[in-house]
Specification:
The protein has helices at 2-9, 67-70, 74-89, 122-127, 134-152; strands spanning 14-16, 18-23, 26-31, 34-42, 46-53, 59-66, 98-104, 109-115. With 153 residues, it is an alpha+beta fold. An 8-stranded mixed beta sheet has the order 1-7-8-6-5-4-3-2. β3 and β4 form a beta hairpin.
């Protein structure tokens, strides 16, 4: 029943297949043609992984979102749909591109497949206590400003 609700409400989702695969001792998850390699972050509704497309060998960031937690309130559902639509519409060099949105067969998880920030996030640089030059800091602020101006225009 729950799965059919997701299919009807979220026509922009495509159904995917998940598999656990074992490589030696390590168990990895294969989501269609994306191999989830390493968890790189965690948010309110899910986790973020570095993944690779097993056919093209391109790397992506995949946000795995727990829909059961998300769907506890109507406000959360509306916000999620609004954010997906906004992210899919944005095309800017300083904003990570949302490539695809997929949902698991059982309807419990959504997977947001995004272009990978090859050098990591600003947050990861701060947490690693990386020394950043003043010119790099100014460049980062400038890029963030351009992205914010684009979103709000």
């Amino acid at each position: 029943m729950e799965s059919s609700i997701h299919k009807n409400k979220f026509s922009f989702f495509k159904i995917i297949e998940e598999k656990d695969i074992t490589s030696g001792v390590k168990c990895m998850k294969l989501v269609n043609n994306y191999l989830l390699l390493k968890k790189i972050g965690k948010g309110t509704w899910g986790k973020v992984f570095i993944s690779t497309d097993i056919y093209t060998k391109k790397n992506y960031a995949i946000k795995k979102i727990n829909l059961k937690d998300l769907f506890k309130t109507q406000k959360s559902i509306s916000q999620f749909i609004r954010e997906i639509k906004l992210m899919k519409s944005l095309e800017h060099p300083n904003i990570l591109k949302l490539e695809k949105v997929r949902v698991s067969l059982n309807g419990n998880y959504a997977y947001l497949i995004l272009k990978l920030a090859e050098h990591g996030s600003v947050d990861s640089l701060i947490k690693q206590n990386v020394n950043i030059s003043l010119s790099s800091i100014l460049s980062i602020i400038k890029q963030i400003s351009y992205a914010l101006m684009f979103i709000h225009s």
